[in-house]
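Message: I would value a second opinion on how I read folds in token form. Give me a protein, with the fold worked out from its sequence. Write it directly below this note and I will take it from there.
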Amino acid sequence: MVFGSQGVVGQWLKTHFNIEFAFNWKGAVLASAVIAFPLMVQAAKLSVQMIDRRLELAASTLGSSPFKVWYTVTLPLMLPGILIGSIMVFSRSLGEFGATITFVGNIAGETRTLPLAIYSATHQIDGDAMAVRLILICLALAFFSLLLSNVLTRRAERWLGVRRA
């Protein structure tokens, strides 16, 4: 309601920046991001909780400002959690169906996402083959996301000097 063409934020964005969310791809991105955002927050929160506060305290006692402590100690140690959260958000957004179809519809070439395309294919005569191909694309993207997550996590751990048990 807020981001729709009659909503407070939606009207303001349309008037000042000519940005409209309802019934176009920008709305599909917004709907997916809003639904998946809690995954990112949870991953970032957990990564912050795992940081040894003594490292931040040591940096601050050596004369670093709070911003420099955050930028040089906290943020690099949060990096694995941020990467994992980003990949989880991307993966979750690929599967978003409800918010997307509710907010922006199922418009071919404009707002159709993979889940909506699978849904549309299953409602067409002889659309099963297309649905299977789209499902295979989803599986390939999920596998690639998992692989990328593992690679980026290992690189971040090596960069931070973290040893695995």
About this structure: The mean pLDDT is 85. The helical segments are 8-17, 25-49, 53-61, 66-94, 98-103, 114-122, 128-160. The chain is about 75% helix and 0% strand.
